Amino acid sequence: MDPRSPASKSRFSKLETLLIAVATFALSILVFGIVTTRNHAIVHHQLPKGTSLSNLPLQDVHTENTTAHQASHAHQRSQENQTVNENKETTKKLNNNTASAAAELKQDKLKSGDNSKRVVDTSKQKAKKEPTGTTTRKELVFFGLGDWGGTTPMLPQVANQMDLYAQRHGLDFVVSLGDNFYPYGVKSLDDPAFNKTFEQTFTAASLQVRWYSVLGNHDHFGSTKAQIQYTGKGSGKWYMPNGYYTSTVSIPQSGKFLQLFALDTYDRKGYKAQLQWIDKQLEQSVKNSSILWRIVVNHNPIYSGGTVHGGSTGKPKWAGYTKQLIAELLPILHKHRVHMYLSADDHNLQLLKDDTGMIFIVSGCGGGKDKPGMFQAVKKIDQTLFKRQYQGGFSAHHASATMLRTVLVNHKGEEIFAYNLTHDTKP
Prior knowledge:
Layout: H1 6-45, H2 68-108, E1 120-121, E2 140-145, H3 154-169, E3 173-176, H4 193-199, E4 210-213, H5 224-229, E5 238-239, E6 245-251, E7 256-262, H6 271-287, E8 291-297, H7 316-328, H8 330-335, E9 340-343, E10 349-353, E11 359-363, E12 384-388, E13 393-399, E14 403-410, E15 414-422
Parallel strand pairs: 2-3, 3-4, 4-5, 7-8, 8-9, 9-11
Antiparallel strand pairs: 1-15, 2-13, 6-7, 10-11, 10-12, 13-14, 14-15
Helix pairs in contact: 1-2
């Protein structure tokens, strides 16, 4: 047959069509195989980290049939993506830690000494989970809190900041500086004020330490005997074995001690006897080389610029008691090199120093008394280093083998003043 004839051309055209169809079909199969293989590799690449093929449903087990090269390639890409994600997370953590460390460093730059008037806001710092009274510390930490004995809205704020400070720094004991129960003390050992005002206010775990307590003028309107008898009762933290007493506390990891001398000079009948008692107690303390710090605590201040109890600035009746302490008690404290006199009575925060180097603290901002007497004005006197009025707060003290540091803290958690007394500073 002539290949150029119409019939021949028709037969060749049909053959070409058939070959094209077969080729197209074969190409489709090939493309389908490539796509399927790639999809298998993708499925393997997207397996969650740590997932085993043996744990997958049956319909996913066919992934194992991909080539070793595809599986290796997918695994490599998975590791690379995982590494990138981990690096991003690490960078994020480092940035967060750096910002946190910078914030803490900024908070810690509180100056010390006569010019330490910088305000440091620690109320938003995350509390360190350091056990209260931990043995890893090399300092003794205690608080001074006075004029707190009521149920005002201010008192819980002060108690909360005490808790936060104690969580950050630890806490060994609290000194309750009098006017523990407003307005007229307690009536008996069964008085509900012990539970309502004291136990239910200071419930934080960090504050479950010994509370060395002294009596204030408002406490003398009630039964002082009941407050003494409450020692060891309730939660067990209240401690007042007598109207005046002494106690020695160990400074961690030093083999040395701090000695407290508690007075009640509003006990007018026993006032003279207390002067004789503390003179003898301090004389013995000075002879003991293991006693590093001597601190006298009393409700009535010696030096104060308060407009109620200050010797030169207060109301005549109350100022008379303060002047008497300056004339009769202060010479005894100077003779025996007392380092600090810790008091309250005036409802403000003060830190004062006389010309011998002895420190005087007024920490009467517990906020226990209802307005208008919750807080009181304060004036500057010759001994004043710092004064703050119309704020709640407390004093925090850090005693080590070389330094006695005092920090005044307000009800917002701001460390509003600090002072360092070195041990070689002789009062």
